[in-house]
Give the backbone structure.
Amino acid sequence: MIGEEFAEALSAVLRDLRAQCSVQPEVREDEEYPGVILYAPDGSGQGVYGEPDGRPAAVLLVAVADQVQDWAVEALWGAGESAVWPHCPAHPDSHPLTATVVGDAAVWVCPASGTPAGRIGGLPPADVAGVADVVPTPRTR
């Protein structure tokens, strides 16, 4: 069973993922893992975990956002789409936003300018089909 603080943080990040990412996870709890496993459509999975351990809620939220972002980038790449999530509104198709704490809030910021783009959990809905089709990223391995 996952803790309440982790569940709240995960819920906030998944709201952003639903709002702005074309690839969505299947979220499963595992009795032997203290967090959850996010499964991509191709069947690959990645664990997401966050131990509250007395740190501020915003710090926990950023830690969970980082892990979900890692999953999203891999899942997008695996689907043959641009591996950028969440998209930076100031610099489309160049880099994802970065999760960080500003004051006492967990926010997504542009890594180039440091400008906040929104609170984690509060990204506005995007045309995810359009986002995914903007610039296809060639797959190389």
Remarks:
- The first strand starts at residue 26 and ends at 29.
- Residues 6 and 136 are 34 Å apart (CA to CA).
- Strands lie at 26-29, 36-39, 45-48, 98-102, 105-109, 116-119.
- Residues 129-141 have pLDDT under 50 and may be disordered.
